[in-house]
Write a structure and sequence with these properties.
The complex is a heterodimer of chains A (399) and B (92).
Chain A (H helix, E strand, L loop, with lengths): L4 H10 L1 E3 L1 H9 L3 E4 L3 H6 L6 E2 L5 H8 L7 E4 L4 H12 L5 E4 L2 H7 L12 H6 L1 H4 L5 H9 L2 E5 L5 H11 L3 E5 L24 H12 L4 E5 L8 H5 L4 E4 L4 H14 L3 E7 L2 E7 L7 H4 L12 H4 L3 H20 L8 E6 L4 E6 L27 H4 L13
Parallel strand pairs in A: 1-5, 2-3, 2-4, 4-5, 6-7, 6-9, 7-8, 9-10
Antiparallel strand pairs in A: 10-11, 11-12, 12-13
Chain B lengths: L1 E4 L2 H4 L7 E4 L4 H11 L3 H5 L10 E5 L2 E2 L15 E6 L7
Parallel strand pairs in B: 1-5
Antiparallel strand pairs in B: 1-2, 3-4, 3-5
Classes of the chains: A alpha/beta (399), B alpha+beta (92).
Chain lengths: 399, 92
Amino acid sequence: MATTLDQLEQIKQRIEMIDPAAARDEIAAGVKVIDVREQHEWDEAHLAEAVHVPQNEVLERIEDVAPDRSERLILHCRTDNRSARVADLLEGVGYENVAVIRGGIVAWQEAGLPVVQPEGLTPEQRMRYSRHTLLPEIGVEGQLKLLGTKVLLIGAGGLGAPAALYLAAAGVGTLGIVDDDVVDESNLQRQVIHDTRRVGRPKTTSARETIEALNPDVKVVEHNTRLDASNILEILEPYDIVVDGADNFPTRYLLNDASVRLRKPVVSASILGFEGQISTFVPYEGPCYRCLYPVPPPPELAPSCGANGVLGVMAGVMGLLQANEVIKLAAGIGEPLVGRLLLYESLGTRFTELKVPRDPACPICGEDAREIPPEEMGKFPDYELFCGAPAREPTPEAV
Amino acid sequence: MATVKIPPVLRAQAGGQAEVTAEGTTVGEVLESLVASHGELRGQLFSPDGELNRYVNVYLNDEDVRVLDGLDTAASDSDTVVILPAMAGGRG
């Protein structure tokens, strides 16, 4: 469609050009308006009533868009060069009643006329997330949902590290990370979001640096603290989904009670040795952590990774299964592990699935559980006592 | 002879095995048979009054026996009894 400037000028003399205001009146009366710009231009802003037919698709699609060649059509582009050429083209194939908006969408906006600016993906995002948007279950819409989701990770350790890495890669827009620990060399066997340069530095900062380099779309909120009854409601509130990678029972029970009260879904996993477990708790739709484990085990049945050991790869497998759950919840696709406990045993590479029923007698989410009134929110029983563990001193190693 | 899956934390007391077979027509009988061969497991699984400890979940195949008939749940040769205590990893 190359044409010289002279020819372009001639075309513009010949075809009908109308001012934005006149175009606005015609459009309001029902005349079809076609935007011939490229996809990324459309994504940034377009006329609400416009039909998008990029310049190079016009001949292919015009008979579907406007089967009647005598139908009045208004074309526009950014200014008017492209739309002028398209008008000329259409006249050549028998479209007799075509007008072009003089000055295009630029003039339209300068005249104070409205445009729609949908939250689309930027061209960089289209490239970055193309492997997601190609999947029908995700598409641009699903990717936008991920970008708009806020996920809180409890712990930037064995489970939090891989989960955070892949959630960042996936474009989950906001990741909050709760961890008061510093990076230790023994972490690096599995906590792959950290590295040797970061030993001795706070895990939240280390995680943020890795994430920012991986995906600048992601905002990281550092919560360099330990969760307890005095801060958990405030920390949890702004987030949509929680990834539980806690390293102790009192925190898991505290998290459960708070998340049920605030109605935040929790994707919960744990690892030890060559084994892992994962389930997804959606308050009142499925069981909660207490429905599954009403009472914590005594210490001898619950060794720590620091004492017992854990295959580094297990952290990756289970952390990524957690990330997978988060993505399903955020994009509203697939079937999350609600009411299901998935066990993975890596020596034999075997998955086992167990059913987890809601416990009607659960003190937190059962039939007789009271809806906690606002004045009692934030008041928790003594979790440390409940779990039979003494109040813990922070230790430099142990995981 | 039902199959019993032993969680890692109890394997030492079960002769190091991840899976054992045990006699019994109910889950209770199967577990009894298990602790008869591996006495150290009794205190881990049962309270002094013979009830299943609340911190141990037991499944017949994929169902929590608490929603079935508890220890009276019928168990056959083709069934698997899964013993599952909670796990928190980390610092414990």
